[in-house]
Amino acid sequence: MEKVKSDIFGWLVRPAGRHLWAALAAVLAASAARTVRRTAHGGMDNAIVVRAARTWLAGGAPYDDPHFLYLPSAVLAAAPQALLPPEALRLLVPPAVTGGLALGWALALRVHGVPPGSRFAALGLIGLAAGCAPFGHLVMLGNWTVTAVVALPLCLLLAVRGRWTAAGLVVGVAVALKPLLAPLALLFLFARRWRALGAMLLVPVLASAGAALLLPDPAGFFTRTLPFLLNGDDDFVRLYEISPAAVLPRLGVPGALSGAVALLAAAGGVLCAYRRWRRADAGPLRLTETAACLMLSAFLVSRPSYNHYLLVVLPLLLAGLPHRGSVARRPWFWLALVPQLPGLTWPYLESGRRRAVKDAVTLCVLAATVARHCARRRPVRGAGVRGAAPEGGTAAARVGGDPSF
Predict the structure, then answer these.
(1) Is the sign of the CA dihedral 160, 163, 165, 171 positive or negative?
(2) Does pLDDT of 405 surpass 60?
(3) Which of 89, 233, 242, 321 has the most CB atoms at less than 10 Å from its CB?
(4) What is the 3-state secondary structure (H, E, C) of 193-239?
(5) Per-residue confidence (pLDDT) for residue 380, from 0 to 100
């Protein structure tokens, strides 16, 4: 770790004062309270999952609802929620999602060795909650994407510590709830961690197979949901999809060409991720940037793909800001996030049918930025957390100064 006393990052990694933590608590509480007031079931997407579980408890088939896009194991996981009254869900789900997002940010900081009680920890989460529209969207929807937001940094934290099999189990559990982190199988493949890869695949397979036997339509995921995901032919879903394959046809590009462009872009991203992994430099950036590149590549080609999926990778990338050579220090990383500023209205993109265009711009620019960063030939010299504490001491103690905000 490089010793820097006057750098801005030295100031950021010092302990945050009480006033800054109070501001963070107010922002998070406001985000959760807004959803509590405006939703009846803790979020629209959460209501879809709960409705599927209630259908199963009543003896029906959860996959009769075409918008239930989860594996059979998610039906059982949602059953406890289905037993709660709507009023309880309205009060419990938004704070739970907000807490999950905060936990994902804390784990991302741990991956990068940034003190969790630092000013950067508090300011970064305030920035995500107040300055990134997908954060509010995810809380409002109550979407189970929050499980991936927690599982990805936890997986990488375990991998950084050499506990690859445990990392595979974490991803496997997350995939059993929602198959969003399935592209991480390539990370285990790159690392040649076969036990971790086996654990990741075995957990959702066993959980889903066991759960399917309890459903009246055991093959419903394959006969109904999977074709729905592959075709993407649903007016409601298409309205919010942000992948190029969904957005380019709105701009007059033929559907087949749009799909080919998305597929080529995703393949290029995977190659860049592999190149990043092959550049075996020390530190957590190798893991986080490879994983982020894989996930963004998947978002480019997957149907459906929504703007709140960006929160799976954004905390990990943003938490690497104190590291020299991190992608968060590139100007295009921040320019990609400009369309996600809350309350900013873009000309000709006001209507709901055009909203996904600006989200697609963010996804494509961010994916291109991360892929180009991963494709570099050489690591940046002296990469490390600037101002971070050495072992046995706090950052504030080493760089000196008043720890209060």
Answers:
(1) negative
(2) no
(3) 242
(4) CHHHHHHHHHHHHHHHHHHHCCCCCCCHHHHHHHHHHHHCCCHHHHC
(5) 53
